[in-house]
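DM from R.C. (forwarded with permission)

"hey, sorry to bug you on a friday — could you get me a structure for this? deadline for the figure draft is monday and I only need the backbone to look sensible"
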Amino acid sequence: MSTLITITLPDEIYQRAQRFAKLANRDVASFLTDTIQHYVFVKTNLEAFALIN
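My reply, with the result:
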């Protein structure tokens, strides 16, 4: 399942994302989606690990 959202990014952040997406031969939307998914996964796992220790 997916939810369509609209976000406003600072120009510099968008330009960086655009450059990385181009290097990976991907569109910006899919690049940002994967980046957010990765960040949320890592962040929540680190927080869960911190609660254990």
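R.C.: lifesaver. The chain has a mean pLDDT of 92.
me: no worries. Residues 27-53 form one domain.
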